[in-house]
Amino acid sequence: MDTALLIWNIVVSWTGIFTNIISDRDPKFTSALWTNLHQLFGTKLSFSTAYHQQTDGLAERMIQTLKDMVRRLCAYGLEFKDCDGFAHDWCTLLPALELGYKTQIHDSTNQTPAILEKGWNPKLPQDSLRKDLVEIHPTASSFKGMLDKARKNAVRCMED
After folding, report:
1. Long-range residue pairs from 6-13, CB within 8 A, at least 24 positions apart, any chain
2. Is 64 exposed, middle or buried (0-12, 13-18, 19+ CB in 10 A)?
3. Quick check: 115 pLDDT over 90?
4. pLDDT over 80 at 96, yes or no
5. pLDDT, mean over the chain
6. 48-76 per-position pLDDT tens digit
7. Three-class SS string for 58-99?
8. Are 80 and 153 in contact (CB under 8 A)?
9. Domain spans of the chain?
10. Residue pair 102/112 in contact by the 8 Å Cβ criterion
């Protein structure tokens, strides 16, 4: 049930109900609960075959790219502390990785995933950062420093 709630809260609430889902044979998706949910919503569940390029290749490539992004993020030790001294680590920054992934042009489509999904690219934080502010809240300053460091690390990662 936890997986169903996560998909409902994170995916379905944003995109709506899918007509077809391609999944591996994870027991979460082959259970009686999932079978009934697919019947209830009229969703077709198709299973991919391991190492079958036509059904599994794109998903596997995306997963590998995301793993590389997380690995590099961890390798550079990206972390920032807010004004209360609380450290935010790589888990906190996963949505930023997602934003970075969705706003990069992919060779296979010559488009960004954001364009293909929504029809537009979101405005990125670094496109809007003001440099003329004299006073800045400590947490905002720390966050800005983290964004600057993230941008520099991203450039280094792309050069590696």
Report:
1. none
2. exposed
3. yes
4. no
5. 77
6. 776 666 665 666 777 788 888 888 777 76
7. HHHHHHHHHHHHHHHHHHCCCCEECCCCCEECCCCCHHHHHH
8. no
9. 73-159
10. yes
